């Protein structure tokens, strides 16, 4: 009888004990799903959290083996900590978000991206192929906290031929940035060198393989001229105000701009981005950006740079100041991405230059949308995707007078075999309204086909 009683009650007892465990399993599964979603965001933003955890474990191992000592036999390496679920904005990753860094990890890594384009100007009856950009990256972890990164851009397949003692060739070679970073905390890091200034999200994320359009926005081509870099020193970091939100920031003191921004065509920032060796005036400029993501998929950013841009001479007093500010936003939900930027420039212009028609205020914006579809239609089916794209660009290079407008509408269809490579097609309508004119000119039509990939 006792055996029968035990045989009947043991299963019931086990079932009662399992009920709370099942409830706990459900809660754990839900919590695990939340962490997994956050972890996927971390992966999309270049696995920053994973890299940090690996760095911490390597630091612990370094401390155990300091002075040449070997780990004790039978003592396992520190176990990986639980996933914190922390994430970081893609725009805050810099060179650490590049694919070659994710693949190779610690030490020195070399990678980059390449892009080529075919352009057909329908109205001018011209067409051309162009090796648009070849951009090598070099990244080195000098120590676990001290990192160096640089990007060197070769535009339009530069070549040099020596004829009659003179060098000839097309294209351009330039260093886009070269910075030394020291990691103190996730919320506080030091950066110095030739810095890619954080004026808008696009200037930080202008690589051809990750952007859905062949041409960069007019705002970045004609006003904030990506990639805009200046020499300076400052700080950056990431904060987590709540479980779902994060806040990233960058703030630097830089040489700023020079009076070279005043040209025969008016105010052009790309003509005077500052010296890398000396400053043309005693004053320095301050530039920074704050980006806030209240929840997964939404990022809002605000950035600005201000400072004196001229030295005292017969034209300038030396007190002339220029201020740039930019607002940007990105929203991703399901198959749809929406993003854009708006910015203004204001420069103090001496009366003598105003009399020649130089206008000191400019503005511009772009708004674009992406729709992803056709996943797996073409091989490789696991990663292949099509994207329909549309963008409207508007730039006013002389806000205080009529005209000075450049506008563009672009429609396109892209295909990505993998996330790091893309084949782009696009059709453009371009309109120009010269300064002092109130009627927009006829549209200029162009067809663009390009390809780009990280390597």
CATH topology of the domain at 113-134 and 168-454: Porin
CATH architecture of the domain at 113-134 and 168-454: Beta Barrel
Q: What is the CATH top level name of the domain at 113-134 and 168-454? A: Mainly Beta
Query: Superfamily at the CATH H level of the domain at 113-134 and 168-454?
Result: Porin
Strand content: 35-45%
Ends distance: 75 Å
Helix proportion: 10-25%
Helix/strand-derived category reads alpha+beta
Which of globular, elongated, flat, extended, rod-shaped describes the shape? globular
Taking Cα atoms only, what radius of gyration do you get, to the nearest Å? 27 Å
Which key features would you list for this structure?
globular; 16-stranded antiparallel barrel; Porin; disordered N terminus; two-stranded antiparallel ribbon; 20 strands; alpha+beta; 455 residues
